[in-house]
Amino acid sequence: MHNNNSGVRRKYALINCPVPPWHVDQFAVLGHRGAKGYAPENTLPSFEKAIELGANMTELDVHLSKDGALVVMHDDDVSRTTDGQGKIASLTLAEIKKLDAGSWFSPLFAGTPVPTLEEVVELVKGRILLNIEVKKTDHLYQGIIPKILDVLLKYDMVTQTVISSFQIEYLKEMKRILPAANLALLYKDEALAVKKAKASSDMDEAVDIVDVAVREGWNGLHCHLSQAYPALITKAHRHGIRVRAWNPNEPEQMRPLLTMGVDGIGTDYPDRLLELIMA
Question: Quick one: angle between helices 270-278 and 44-53, nearest 10?
Answer without folding.
Answer: 10
